[in-house]
Specification:
With 451 residues, this protein is α+β, with helices and mostly antiparallel strands. The protein is built from 15 helices and eleven strands. The protein has a single domain, classed as Orthogonal Bundle (Cytochrome p450). It is globular and about 60 Å long.
Length: 451
C-alpha cells in the first residue's frame, strides 16, 4: 500500500435500511444508486417484490457466477426495462439481442475488435488524447470533452477517412441528453402492464434517440466504398448460410451500438479517474514517477502499455468505485435455485457492480480510493467475479481490451501534459440511469505543466 491517508470520494447518502417500496421507486427513477440502502454493501442476496414484479439481486461472487456464467443460457435475455431503455437508440443490436442472432453477430463483432487487433487502434487513442491536452486550458467539463473524444476514436475506427469531429461531439451530447430523460425504473413493467405499454415514459427521450440515429445514418451514408475500417468489415460479414449478416437497418443498429458502447465506458471511467487523481497527490506522484521512468515525456507506444501497471490500476480503481455500467439486468427463462431463493421464469435477476465493487466482505476499505489494490504484486487480489466492470460470462464486453488500452493512453498523455485541480465547492456526485456519470458534469481546472 502507498503510505498515505485514504481518499474517500463522494457517493450518495443512503438510508440505513430499506424504506417503503413506492418511495424507493420514486428515488431510483432518478438515480439507481440510491435505490439500495447501506445494508446493500453487506448482503449476499437481495430478493424483493416491487408492485407486481419480482426482482432478485445476486451480490456475492459465487452467486454471480452461478447465474451469469454457469446458467447464462437461462439468463441470456436483457430485462424488459433494459430493452425498453436502449432500443430507441440501438434497435435490435447485439447488445440487446439473444439466441442465435446474438451468437452470430457477437462472433463477427468480437473478431473485429479482438484484443489481438488493439495495436491498430492505438494511434487513434494517442491522437485523441494529444488533441485534448493541446486544447484544455482553465476550467473544463472533462466529462463532456472525454465523451466526445472517445466517440471520435470509435468513429475513426469505423470510418477512417470520413469521420468528423463535430459529429462525434454531437453524438456524445445527444446521448447525454437522452440518458438524462430516461428513467431508471420502468413503472409500466412493475405494474404488470404489457411491454408494449412501457414506452409512455420514454416519450421525452425519443427526440434525442432520433438525433443519435440520424448522426449514425449520416456517417454511414458518407462512408466511401474503399474506405476500409470496421464498418466496411461489418458490412461485408456473412452469416452461417453465406448470406449478408446485416441489412441496412441492422447495420445502423450495430454502428449505433459500437459508437455508444465503445465510448461510454472509457469516457466515464476517465472522467472519474482524473477527478480522483486531482484529489489525491500521492497517487499523482506515483503516476508521474511511472510515466517519467517508462515514457520520459513522450506519448506511450502500444508496447509501452504493459509497462504502465499503475496507470492501468488507476483506471481499474475508478471503475470499481464508479462502475460505468452500474447494473447488469437479465430476465429469467427457467427456474433456478440461487442461495435461499428460487428464480422463476419472468423474474428479473440483477448483479450490481455498484454494490459488488464496494461489498464490505470482499474489499478492504471498500469506499476508499486505493489503486494499488489492482497492481500485479498486490498482496490481496481483487475477488474473482466480484469485480465486473465489463460484465461477466458469455456476454462480457467484446471491446474490453479496446477500452482498457484507450483509458491507459489517455491518462498517460493527459497527466504528462497537464496539471489538474478540482475547484473548491460542491463535490461531484455520481448518478446512474444507464451509466454512472457525475451529476451536472465534471469541471476540473487544467493547466499546462510548468505553466
Amino acid at each position: 500500500m502507498l503510505e498515505h491517508a485514504d481518499l474517500i470520494p463522494p457517493r450518495p447518502a443512503l438510508p440505513a435500511r430499506f424504506g417503503g417500496t413506492l418511495a424507493l421507486l420514486r428515488t431510483s427513477a432518478e438515480d439507481m444508486l440510491r435505490f439500495f440502502p447501506e445494508t446493500g454493501f453487506r448482503h449476499r442476496l437481495i430478493p424483493m417484490r416491487t408492485l407486481r414484479r419480482r426482482l432478485v439481486v445476486v451480490n456475492d461472487p459465487e452467486l454471480v457466477r452461478q447465474v451469469f456464467v454457469l446458467h447464462a443460457a437461462e439468463h441470456e435475455a436483457k430485462s424488459p426495462h433494459f430493452r425498453q431503455a436502449l432500443a430507441p437508440v440501438i434497435g435490435d443490436s447485439m447488445f440487446l439481442n439473444s439466441g442465435r442472432v446474438w451468437a452470430e453477430r457477437r462472433a463477427v463483432i468480437a473478431r473485429l475488435i479482438h484484443p489481438s487487433r488493439t495495436a491498430m487502434f492505438h494511434p487513434l487513442f494517442v491522437e485523441g488524447a494529444e488533441a485534448l491536452a493541446a486544447r484544455w486550458r482553465g476550467r473544463v467539463d472533462v466529462a463532456r470533452e472525454l465523451a466526445a473524444a472517445t466517440a471520435l476514436a470509435v468513429m475513426r475506427a469505423l470510418f477512417p477517412r470520413t469521420a468528423r469531429e463535430a459529429d462525434a461531439a454531437a453524438l456524445a451530447a445527444a446521448f447525454t441528453a437522452y440518458e438524462s430523460r430516461v428513467l431508471a425504473v420502468d413503472f409500466a413493467h412493475l405494474l404488470g402492464l404489457p411491454e408494449r405499454l412501457s414506452g409512455w415514459q420514454m416519450r421525452a427521450a425519443r427526440r434525442h434517440a432520433r438525433e443519435i440515429r440520424a448522426l449514425c445514418a449520416a456517417a454511414i451514408a458518407r462512408a466511401e466504398p474503399d474506405e476500409g475500417g470496421l464498418f466496411a468489415e461489418l458490412k461485408a460479414a456473412f452469416d452461417s448460410a453465406g448470406r449478408p449478416l446485416l441489412d441496412a437497418e441492422q447495420l445502423l443498429n450495430e454502428v449505433a451500438m459500437l459508437l455508444l458502447a465503445g465510448s461510454e465506458t472509457s469516457a466515464n471511467a476517465l472522467t472519474w479517474a482524473l477527478y480522483l487523481v486531482a484529489r489525491h497527490p500521492p497517487t499523482l506522484a506515483a503516476l508521474r514517477a511511472e510515466h517519467a521512468r517508462v515514457l520520459g515525456g513522450r506519448a506511450p507506444g502500444f508496447g509501452d502499455l504493459a509497462d504502465l501497471p499503475f496507470t492501468k490500476a488507476v483506471t481499474q480503481e475508478a471503475m470499481r468505485l464508479y462502475p460505468p455500467v452500474p447494473y447488469l439486468s437479465r430476465e429469467a427463462a427457467a427456474s433456478l435455485r440461487v442461495g435461499q431463493v428460487t428464480l422463476h421464469p419472468g423474474d428479473t435477476v440483477m448483479a450490481l457492480p455498484w454494490l459488488l465493487h464496494r461489498h464490505e466482505q470482499l474489499w478492504e476499505a471498500p469506499h476508499a480510493f486505493r489503486p494499488e489494490r489492482f497492481l500485479p504484486d498486490a498482496p490481496r487480489k481483487p475477488p474473482r467475479m466480484g469485480y465486473i466492470p465489463f460484465s461477466i460470462g458469455p456476454r462480457v464486453c467484446a471491446g474490453a481490451a479496446f477500452a482498457q488500452a484507450e483509458m491507459t493512453v489517455f491518462l498517460a498523455v493527459l497527466l504528462q501534459r497537464l496539471d489538474f485541480a478540482a475547484p473548491a465547492g460542491a463535490e461531484p456526485m455520481p448518478r446512474a440511469r444507464l451509466t454512472t456519470r457525475p451529476r451536472g458534469g465534471m469541471v476540473l481546472e487544467a493547466t499546462p505543466r510548468g505553466g
